[in-house]
Design goal:
Elements (H helix, E strand, L loop, with lengths): L7 E4 L2 E5 L10 E4 L2 H9 L6 H15 L6 H12 L6 H14 L4 H35 L6 E6 L15 H9 L3 E6 L6 H12 L3 E4 L4 H6 L5 E4 L3 E3 L4 E4 L2 H11 L3 E4 L5 E2 L16 H4 E5 L5 E5 L12 E4 L6 E4 L2 E3 L4 H7 L2
Parallel strand pairs: 4-5, 4-7, 5-6, 7-10, 8-11, 10-15
Antiparallel strand pairs: 1-2, 2-3, 8-9, 9-14, 12-13, 15-16
Helix pairs in contact: 1-2, 2-3, 2-4, 2-5, 3-4, 4-5, 5-6
The structure holds 5-S-methyl-1-O-phosphono-5-thio-D-ribulose.
The site of 5-S-methyl-1-O-phosphono-5-thio-D-ribulose (MRU) has 18 residues, from helix 2 and strand 9.
């Protein structure tokens, strides 16, 4: 990745992020200087994607401890950040790790330790995603057609992580290995994260085609897709997976068309305390996200237009659950497993 393409990095005693609300039209960096800045960046989706939300939350704790690192400040930082978005478990995983690491330390050491731990979380995420890419590449290599046609949903590329991405990591690994791939990219209404995926793939020179979400089933039936690969916001212990709304419909269509459907995620996205998908909290976002669309006007200026009046009733669940029975396999940093076999990957580490 060229140096300007980063999602999050330390700059002095602040944290620089790429503002994803402006992409793909504008490339702008923002600086987070406080707990409030970090919480806002996650809630308003300047940063997004489960792993990146976790990394930002970890840095949010470090920023919060600038003004005092006592138990109360630490707890308040964790509570504030935990309340930003409910579905991605990486947020809660990162906060639990920060709290667990910092609480036993003398207060005077906590600030420096918080920065170091946030840095470690970011580095581990990048390393895990690199491994996901390698394991995913092994799946792609088995497909005889060239180019291999992948389909993804939302954005689970480097923009959604510290680096490399999860669902897109195998595509990046394939490019490095000289294996030609083409990616079907679904728009992902209402927030259109598919446009981020198209932008990423364009930057990387990977052939791709943007489709309306509703075109996915047709393409799967037509045999235009060899493998579907998506990310995850939370994987329950039984393999049921929460991901961006619309994922479930792709899994259904893939199952009916006999196309393998993989979820790619680091183990930090697995919630071992959650027995099944019915227990995963699903974020409900503002109706305005459905009633309005943003883009460039004729002059190339960013504009938002209403496509429905404010009086139209709107539901906006941001995620859905794909039951484990529709998932061919889960690609993690420790290898690929059937959704019901996730525990074997955790045991590998012991
Ligand atoms: O609402 P978002 O954009 O944060 O949702 C992102 C997704 O659903 C991703 O697929 C998921 O977080 C995995 S990102 C590697």
């Amino acid at each position: 990745m060229p140096d300007r393409l980063f999602t999050i990095r330390e700059e002095g005693d602040s944290v620089a992020i790429l503002d994803q609300t402006l992409l793909p039209h504008q490339h702008a960096t923002r600086h987070l200087n406080s707990l409030a800045d970090a919480a806002h960046a996650i809630r308003a989706m300047l940063v997004r994607g489960a792993p990146l939300i976790g990394v930002t939350a970890a840095y949010g704790v470090a920023l919060a401890l600038k003004d005092g690192a006592g138990n109360k400040a630490l707890q308040q930082a964790c509570d504030t950040l935990a309340a930003t978005r409910p579905t991605a478990v990486n947020l809660h995983w990162a906060l639990a790790r920060m709290r667990g690491h910092l609480l036993p330390l003398p207060v005077a050491q906590r600030r420096a330790a918080a920065w170091a731990e946030a840095r470690a979380i970011a580095a581990e995420d990048a390393a895990a995603n690199r491994q996901i890419g390698r394991h995913g590449l092994a799946l792609i290599e088995k497909i005889p057609r060239r180019p291999v046609n992948l389909m993804t949903h939302c954005n689970a590329g480097w923009l959604a992580t510290a680096a490399w991405g999860t669902a897109l990591a195998p595509a990046y690994a394939a490019r490095e290995a000289g294996l030609p791939v083409h990616v079907w990219v679904s728009e992902t209404r209402p927030r259109n994260q598919g446009l981020l995926t198209a932008w990423e793939l364009h930057e990387a020179g990977i052939p791709h085609t943007l489709i309306a979400d509703n075109a996915a089933g047709h393409l799967l039936r037509q045999g235009a897709v060899d493998l579907v690969i998506v990310g995850a916001d939370r994987i329950a212990a039984n393999g049921d997976t929460a991901n961006k709304v619309g994922t479930y419909l792709k899994a259904l269509a893939a199952a009916d068309s006999g196309v393998p459907f993989f979820v790619a995620a680091p183990l930090s996205s697995v919630d071992r305390d959650c027995p099944g998908g019915a227990h995963i909290p699903i974020e409900e976002r503002e109706g305005s996200e459905v009633r309005h669309v943003g883009g460039l006007d004729r002059r190339g200026v960013h504009a938002t237009v209403a496509i429905a009046p404010d009086t139209t009733a709107v539901a906006n669940p941001a995620f859905d659950i794909t039951p484990a029975r529709f998932i061919t396999g889960i690609v993690t940093e420790r290898g690929v497993c059937a959704p019901g076999e996730l525990h074997t990957l955790f045991e590998k580490a012991k």
